[in-house]
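As the next step, I selected for study a record pairing a protein sequence with its C-alpha coordinates, which the following lines show:
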Amino acid sequence: MSAYNRHDLGLLLLRLGTGGVLAAHGAQKLLGWFGGHGIEGTGQFMESVGYAPGKASATTAGLAELGGGTLLALGLATPAAGAAAAGAMAGASAVHAPNGFFNQEGGFEYAATLGLAAAGLAVTGPGRLSLDHALGHVLDRGWMVPAALGATAAVTAMVVGARNRRLDKPELDDAADQFDSQEALFGE
Protein backbone atom coordinates (compact mmCIF):
# COMPACT_ATOMS: atom_id res chain seq x y z
CA MET A 1 0.00 0.00 0.00
CA SER A 2 1.40 3.36 -0.92
CA ALA A 3 0.53 6.53 0.91
CA TYR A 4 0.73 9.78 -0.94
CA ASN A 5 2.82 12.43 0.71
CA ARG A 6 2.68 16.20 0.50
CA HIS A 7 5.30 16.13 -2.28
CA ASP A 8 2.87 14.18 -4.47
CA LEU A 9 -0.04 16.44 -3.52
CA GLY A 10 2.03 19.55 -4.21
CA LEU A 11 3.03 18.29 -7.65
CA LEU A 12 -0.59 17.41 -8.40
CA LEU A 13 -1.73 20.93 -7.48
CA LEU A 14 1.09 22.52 -9.48
CA ARG A 15 0.31 20.31 -12.49
CA LEU A 16 -3.43 20.99 -12.34
CA GLY A 17 -2.99 24.75 -11.96
CA THR A 18 -0.23 25.24 -14.51
CA GLY A 19 -1.63 22.71 -16.94
CA GLY A 20 -5.16 24.08 -16.63
CA VAL A 21 -4.11 27.66 -17.32
CA LEU A 22 -1.97 26.60 -20.29
CA ALA A 23 -4.76 24.43 -21.71
CA ALA A 24 -7.25 27.29 -21.42
CA HIS A 25 -4.90 29.63 -23.30
CA GLY A 26 -4.43 27.00 -25.99
CA ALA A 27 -8.21 26.58 -26.30
CA GLN A 28 -8.49 30.34 -26.83
CA LYS A 29 -6.03 30.14 -29.71
CA LEU A 30 -7.29 26.96 -31.34
CA LEU A 31 -11.01 26.96 -30.63
CA GLY A 32 -11.92 30.54 -29.75
CA TRP A 33 -13.09 29.41 -26.30
CA PHE A 34 -12.94 31.58 -23.16
CA GLY A 35 -13.04 34.82 -25.14
CA GLY A 36 -10.27 33.77 -27.50
CA HIS A 37 -10.04 34.61 -31.18
CA GLY A 38 -9.52 31.13 -32.63
CA ILE A 39 -7.03 30.29 -35.34
CA GLU A 40 -7.97 33.19 -37.64
CA GLY A 41 -7.76 35.98 -35.08
CA THR A 42 -4.77 34.51 -33.30
CA GLY A 43 -3.05 33.99 -36.65
CA GLN A 44 -3.52 37.67 -37.49
CA PHE A 45 -2.10 38.63 -34.10
CA MET A 46 0.87 36.28 -34.56
CA GLU A 47 1.65 37.92 -37.91
CA SER A 48 1.43 41.38 -36.32
CA VAL A 49 4.07 40.46 -33.72
CA GLY A 50 6.42 38.86 -36.24
CA TYR A 51 5.52 35.16 -36.11
CA ALA A 52 4.88 34.07 -39.69
CA PRO A 53 3.02 32.43 -41.16
CA GLY A 54 0.41 33.51 -38.66
CA LYS A 55 -2.03 30.60 -38.87
CA ALA A 56 0.73 28.01 -38.59
CA SER A 57 2.24 29.90 -35.66
CA ALA A 58 -1.16 30.13 -33.94
CA THR A 59 -1.75 26.42 -34.47
CA THR A 60 1.67 25.46 -33.14
CA ALA A 61 1.40 27.70 -30.09
CA GLY A 62 -2.16 26.57 -29.44
CA LEU A 63 -1.24 22.89 -29.66
CA ALA A 64 1.77 23.37 -27.38
CA GLU A 65 -0.41 25.14 -24.82
CA LEU A 66 -3.57 23.02 -25.07
CA GLY A 67 -1.77 19.71 -25.56
CA GLY A 68 1.12 20.43 -23.23
CA GLY A 69 -1.18 21.87 -20.57
CA THR A 70 -3.60 18.94 -20.72
CA LEU A 71 -0.77 16.42 -20.54
CA LEU A 72 0.82 18.29 -17.63
CA ALA A 73 -2.48 18.32 -15.74
CA LEU A 74 -2.83 14.56 -16.30
CA GLY A 75 0.82 13.90 -15.53
CA LEU A 76 1.32 12.10 -18.81
CA ALA A 77 4.47 12.35 -20.95
CA THR A 78 5.59 14.99 -18.49
CA PRO A 79 9.03 15.75 -19.98
CA ALA A 80 7.61 16.39 -23.46
CA ALA A 81 4.52 18.18 -22.15
CA GLY A 82 6.52 20.51 -19.92
CA ALA A 83 9.06 21.21 -22.64
CA ALA A 84 6.40 22.00 -25.25
CA ALA A 85 4.59 24.37 -22.89
CA ALA A 86 7.87 26.02 -21.84
CA GLY A 87 8.79 26.57 -25.49
CA ALA A 88 5.45 28.23 -26.21
CA MET A 89 5.88 30.49 -23.18
CA ALA A 90 9.41 31.41 -24.26
CA GLY A 91 7.93 32.56 -27.58
CA ALA A 92 5.28 34.56 -25.72
CA SER A 93 7.94 36.06 -23.43
CA ALA A 94 9.84 37.28 -26.50
CA VAL A 95 6.76 39.24 -27.58
CA HIS A 96 6.31 40.83 -24.16
CA ALA A 97 9.99 41.44 -23.31
CA PRO A 98 10.15 44.95 -24.83
CA ASN A 99 7.53 46.01 -22.26
CA GLY A 100 9.72 45.05 -19.32
CA PHE A 101 9.15 42.45 -16.65
CA PHE A 102 5.85 43.23 -14.95
CA ASN A 103 2.59 41.99 -16.46
CA GLN A 104 0.72 45.20 -15.55
CA GLU A 105 2.93 47.02 -18.05
CA GLY A 106 2.50 44.30 -20.69
CA GLY A 107 5.75 42.61 -19.67
CA PHE A 108 6.83 38.99 -19.76
CA GLU A 109 6.27 38.13 -16.07
CA TYR A 110 3.18 35.94 -16.64
CA ALA A 111 4.48 34.01 -19.64
CA ALA A 112 7.85 33.46 -17.96
CA THR A 113 6.20 32.17 -14.78
CA LEU A 114 4.08 29.66 -16.70
CA GLY A 115 7.10 28.59 -18.76
CA LEU A 116 9.31 28.11 -15.73
CA ALA A 117 6.59 26.14 -13.92
CA ALA A 118 6.17 23.89 -16.98
CA ALA A 119 9.94 23.39 -17.32
CA GLY A 120 10.19 22.69 -13.59
CA LEU A 121 7.53 20.00 -13.87
CA ALA A 122 9.36 18.47 -16.83
CA VAL A 123 12.49 18.22 -14.67
CA THR A 124 10.95 17.08 -11.37
CA GLY A 125 8.42 14.70 -12.86
CA PRO A 126 4.71 14.42 -12.15
CA GLY A 127 4.71 12.64 -8.79
CA ARG A 128 2.81 9.50 -7.89
CA LEU A 129 -0.64 11.00 -8.48
CA SER A 130 -0.22 10.90 -12.24
CA LEU A 131 -0.84 8.82 -15.32
CA ASP A 132 2.92 8.58 -15.87
CA HIS A 133 3.25 6.82 -12.50
CA ALA A 134 0.21 4.59 -13.17
CA LEU A 135 1.73 3.54 -16.51
CA GLY A 136 5.14 2.74 -15.06
CA HIS A 137 6.79 5.93 -16.39
CA VAL A 138 7.07 4.59 -19.94
CA LEU A 139 6.67 8.18 -21.22
CA ASP A 140 8.68 9.73 -18.37
CA ARG A 141 12.19 8.30 -18.52
CA GLY A 142 15.20 10.20 -17.22
CA TRP A 143 16.80 10.54 -20.65
CA MET A 144 13.62 12.14 -21.98
CA VAL A 145 14.02 15.26 -19.84
CA PRO A 146 17.23 16.64 -21.44
CA ALA A 147 16.14 15.37 -24.86
CA ALA A 148 12.76 17.14 -24.71
CA LEU A 149 14.11 20.35 -23.18
CA GLY A 150 17.10 20.42 -25.54
CA ALA A 151 15.02 19.88 -28.67
CA THR A 152 12.48 22.47 -27.54
CA ALA A 153 15.21 24.99 -26.74
CA ALA A 154 16.74 24.55 -30.19
CA VAL A 155 13.43 24.91 -32.03
CA THR A 156 12.37 27.86 -29.87
CA ALA A 157 15.67 29.62 -30.52
CA MET A 158 15.21 29.17 -34.27
CA VAL A 159 11.58 30.39 -34.23
CA VAL A 160 12.26 33.40 -32.00
CA GLY A 161 15.42 34.19 -33.98
CA ALA A 162 13.47 34.14 -37.26
CA ARG A 163 10.86 36.41 -35.67
CA ASN A 164 13.53 38.83 -34.51
CA ARG A 165 15.08 38.94 -37.99
CA ARG A 166 11.64 39.60 -39.47
CA LEU A 167 11.09 42.46 -37.04
CA ASP A 168 14.55 43.90 -37.73
CA LYS A 169 14.04 43.86 -41.49
CA PRO A 170 11.52 46.77 -41.60
CA GLU A 171 14.11 48.94 -39.87
CA LEU A 172 16.57 48.15 -42.65
CA ASP A 173 13.88 48.89 -45.23
CA ASP A 174 13.11 52.21 -43.50
CA ALA A 175 16.80 53.16 -43.53
CA ALA A 176 17.04 52.32 -47.23
CA ASP A 177 13.90 54.40 -47.91
CA GLN A 178 15.37 57.33 -45.99
CA PHE A 179 18.60 57.07 -47.96
CA ASP A 180 16.64 57.00 -51.23
CA SER A 181 14.63 60.05 -50.11
CA GLN A 182 17.78 61.98 -49.22
CA GLU A 183 19.35 60.99 -52.51
CA ALA A 184 16.29 62.31 -54.36
CA LEU A 185 16.31 65.56 -52.39
CA PHE A 186 19.98 66.28 -52.86
CA GLY A 187 20.29 64.84 -56.37
CA GLU A 188 23.13 62.52 -55.49
Notes: Residues 172-188 have pLDDT under 50 and may be disordered. DSSP finds seven helices and no strands in the chain. The chain has one domain: 6-186. The helical segments are 6-31, 38-48, 54-74, 78-96, 109-124, 131-134, 144-186.
